[in-house]
Amino acid sequence: MYSRNDQDKDVWTYSTQGATYKVQTTYKLLMGHQPVQPAIKWLWKSYCQPKHRVFFWLLMKDRLSTKNILKRRKMQLDSFNCAFCTSAQEETTLHLFWGCPYAQHYWGTIGLQIVEDGDTVQNIQALRTQLRSQFFMIAIILMSWTIWKARNEAIFNNRLLSTQECKTVFSMELEKVSCRIKTSLSLLFDQWCQNLH
Q: Is 151 exposed, middle or buried (0-12, 13-18, 19+ CB in 10 A)?
C-alpha cells in the first residue's frame, strides 16, 4: 500500500487491486470530531421503541415542535404560552419538561425530583442518580413521552389529563417496552417496573 500525501492517506487506500475511498474518514476530516455526550449513548442503548428514542433525541436537541420552536419559525399562534400553566410562561422544551409545575408534579408521582433551573442533560444525570437502575433511561424517556402526549391532548382536544391518566399512559408504554427487554433481564425489569408504581 502507498498513498500520495499524508492528508490523502486517510481518505484513499491504494493497493494492487486499485484505490479504495473511505467515506467515513472523509466525513470525519470535513466535520471534525466532537465527543458524544453520555446521555446520547444512554438514549440509543435504551430498550425503548424507535419512536420513543427519536422523540427523546429531538427533545435533547431542542427540536420538538414546541410553541417556542413554532415562534422561531415565524408561525402565528393565538398564544405561545404553556398549555399546562395558568401564568404566561412561554412553552419551551426546558419549561415543558423540567420547569412546568404540571411536569414537576408528574415526575414526583414516581418519586423523582427535577433540577428546576437545569437543562435537559443535567436533569437526565440527576434522574439517573435517583433511579439507580440500568433501566433508568426507559423511565426518563417514557415519562417525557407521557408529558408530551398530555401537552398534545391539552392543545388539540382542550382536555388536561389527570395524574392518574398520565400514569396509565406511562404504564401502557412501559408494557410495550417490556416486550423488547432481553429474556435474561425480564425478571429484573418486571421487579423494577413494580417499584416505579
A: buried
CA distances from 117 to 89, 100, 185 (A): 14, 11, 35
Q: Are 103 and 143 contacting, i.e. CB atoms less than 8 angstroms apart?
A: no
- Residue 148: alpha-carbon gap to chain centroid: 11
CB 43 within 8 A of CB 53: yes
Cβ atoms of residues 98 and 120 within 8 Å: yes
SS3 12: strand
For strand 12-15 and strand 18-21, is the pairing parallel, antiparallel, or unpaired? Answer: antiparallel
Position 168, amino acid = T
Cell numbers that stand for 45 in this block: 442503548
Give the Cα separation of 34 and 45 in Å (integer): 19
Largest CA distance in the chain: 72
Alpha helices in the chain (DSSP H): 6-11, 23-31, 38-45, 50-60, 67-72, 93-94, 101-108, 120-131, 136-156, 163-178, 186-196
Q: Report whether 59 contacts 39 (CB < 8 A).
A: no
The single-letter DSSP state of residue 96 is I
What's this model's pTM, rounded to 2 decimal places? 0.82
- Sorted by sequence, the CB contacts under 8 Å of residue 48 that are 6+ apart come out as 56, 137, 138, 141, 142, 177, 180
The amino acid occupying position 5 is N
Tens of pLDDT along 119-146? Answer: 999 999 999 999 999 999 999 999 999 9
